[in-house]
Structure formats: structure tokens, C-alpha cells
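Q: What would this chain look like folded?
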Amino acid sequence: MKRYTYEARDQATNKVVKASLQADSESAAAKLLAKQGFVPLSIKEQAGDGNFLEKITGRVTTKDRVVFTRQLATLIGAGLPLSQSLHTVLEQTENKQLQAVIEDISASVEGGRSLSESFAKHPKVFNEVFISLIAAGELSGTLDESLQRIANQQEKDAAVVSKIRGALTYPIIVLVVIFAVMAFMLFTVVPQVEKLYDDLNKDLPFLTQIMVDAANFLASFWWLVLILVGVGIYFFIQYLRTEGGIKFKDTFKLRIPLFGKMFQKLYMARFARTGQTLLSTGVSMLDMLKITGRAVNNTIIQKSIERATDKVQGGKALSTALEPEEVISPLVPQMIKIGEQSGRIDEMMGKVAQVYEDELDEQIRTISTAIEPILMVILAVVAGGMVGAILLPIYSLVNGVNL
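A: My prediction, written as C-alpha cells:
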């Protein structure tokens, strides 16, 4: 199918609408518009997909998706036709990349596809959870409610991730400061110490000599160091994209000191919150488990959920299937068991998510408070060690001259 941009007059409102659609030919596009109650004014085949710079800089953020989702839910809930709702949201969207996506979705819907199928054409913008909830909403006739649930889900997940990133920002800044202090000492102070010892025809102490050699090497072969670091980073990133690298990264996140428990609570909150959203929308238990396994974004947790899915498919209760899994926190199957007994699994999963989100907030505050003095001690030890390695030999040298 080709893509056409058109300008047409809506016979119901007498307003001129500008949008795009997909059709086999220009005449087919005109017939499609006529069926929808539009009088075509101009129809042009769309040539390009936007310039390269817009594709790079126009990233669709979580905030963009949430605003788009809420606007669409409000318009559909108000009784506007889907096609008109998409056109209205398109006019209110500022992000160029998202505009192009909405245009394609609108064209796809006007071409006869369902909304979930149209969203599925853009997996980089709308994940599997988003698409599944849209499909469930279409089947149940509660599309506006499904869209509101999606927006709530996205906002909660983004808020949790943002807090974790905030907790990790401070350590990264301190590490950068440590390396900056080391570089400053090596390239400014150490050469002066070497010159002083050369003028007095004295041998440098062992530790100071190591620092001098390091400074000289970096000054002469900085380009080689940059190449080696760049190549190392490139191959490490490539490794992390392999199956073994992904497993290593996901295992490391769960076992890293201080932050491991925090990541586990993040994944449990994400599993429970996504599960609650899917079940409350009418998605089946097995489909919910398959989708949440991928939505958690950790292959170790995903494998555990997949094993539990096989057991549920074999007739076991979800709580029983999750109990033996070590990476699944005990509270999850316990609360799900209560939900199974009361017939409100989705409600219990929502409560589990709230518990872990609250615990995560508290742990992030605790880590942020505790990590500051630890990092300051590390900074003091590194900087103090370098200063000591420079000043103590000078002090000894001065004392030797005075004697």
C-alpha cells in the first residue's frame, strides 16, 4: 500500500481536515475518504519519511506517550469516532517523531486495520503491554478505560525508574570527580616533583616513580589509551547484546551489592503492576504471564515466570507455580494466593506492586543517604593517597637537605 496525504472537508462539521492514509492508489484513497464522509480536496502521494536529523533528535519519551494516551482516551470516552480522535490528538502533538507515528496509525486505521494492529507497526514506541491492552479494550468495548490504565501503568513505571536513576547519578558524579582529581595530580603536580628530584640528583621513591611513569606514559600515548578504551567499550557493549552478555548483565543487577535488592524490588513491582493492569482489562492468565515475563526486562526473572507459566498451563495455581522460584520474592506468591482464594488476583497484584513501590522509595532514600559518606571517604582516600605519595617524599627530601 502507498501512503497519501490529503486535505478533505468533513461533511458532518464542514471543517477542512489534513491527515494521511494508506491505499493502493489515489482513486482508492478518494473512495475511502468518501466512505468516511469526507469530500476530498487534494490527495498527494507521500514521498519521504522525514529528515535524518528529526529521526535522531525526535525521540518519543514516556511523557509524550502518556500525554498522547490520555488525550486519546478522553476523546474516545467523549464519544468521538476513532479516526477523528486520532486527527485531533495529532493536531495537539508537538513531538515530530510521534506526529509521524500517529499519522501512520491514523492512515492504517482508515485503511481498515484495527487500532491494536496499527500500534503494533511501531514496536519501538509502543511495547507489547501497550498493544495487548489496546487489543483487550477493543474486544471488550472499553478502549477508553484500557488507554487510561496504560497511561497509569506508564507513569508509575517511569516514576520508579526515574528514582533509581536519580540514586545512581550521585555515585557516577563522584567517580568522575575522582578520575578528574587523579588526572589533575598526574599531569600538573607529579611532573613538578620529578623536576625537583632531577635538579637535586636524587632517586624518586618507588610509589612516586610509579606515578611519574604513569603520567609520562599517558602524556606520550594518550591517543593509544583512548583507542584501547574506545575499543574496549565497543566490544563490551557488543558483548552485552549477546545472549551471554544479557544474562551476565541481568544476573549482575540482581547480585550487585547495595543495589541488588533495589533492582529485585523494581522487577517485582513491575511484574505485579503489569499483571494487575492486564488482568483487570480482561487478558487471560497465560497471556498475562507471557507478556509480563517480557515486560519485566530481566531475563533471569523472565525465565522464572516462564517456568511458572508452564506449571500454570499444566493445571497448577499461579501462587504454587511461583513459590519455588528463588528470584521471585516470597510476598508475591503469598499475596497472589489470597487473591486466588478471594477471586481478586488483579487487586492483590496491585497491592503487591504498591508494597514494593513504597519499599523501593524507602530503600532509594536510605541508599542515597548512606552512599554519600561512603563515596566521600573513597574520594578522600584516593586524593589523600596521591597527595601523600607526592608530599611525603618532598618533606623527606627537604629534611635531608636541612640536615
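The chain has two domains: 1-48, 157-403.
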